[in-house]
């Protein structure tokens, strides 16, 4: 599922996975590494996501003894929860069609 805003994907599976990785690793750079993504690409995706929301999904701390990092805001946590709930409900509702599509894929 993707949510578009002004021709841009405001929210989709890649951004949700990146949010989950930031939540797990505590920084955009570590999240990017875990997803085999460049830091620049991850930063641009987070910036695009945060700009498309009423309130940001992440906040970053710069520098410091531990080198800074990023954490999810309650909005970021809610995005993950809602998105994964939608996926589960859609998979259950469309199980017959998903099975039919799966049968069309080469093994």
UniProtKB/TrEMBL annotation:
Pfam family name, one: HTH_1
GO molecular function: DNA-binding transcription factor activity
Domain HTH lysR-type: 17-77
Domain of life (superkingdom): Bacteria
Annotated InterPro entries: LysR_HTH_N, Molybdate_resp_trans_reg, WH-like_DNA-bd_sf, WH_DNA-bd_sf
PANTHER family documented for this protein: DNA-BINDING TRANSCRIPTIONAL DUAL REGULATOR MODE (PTHR30432:SF1), TRANSCRIPTIONAL REGULATOR MODE (PTHR30432)
Gene assigned in the entry: mopA_1
Name under which the protein is recorded: Molybdenum-pterin-binding protein MopA
Organism: Paraburkholderia saeva
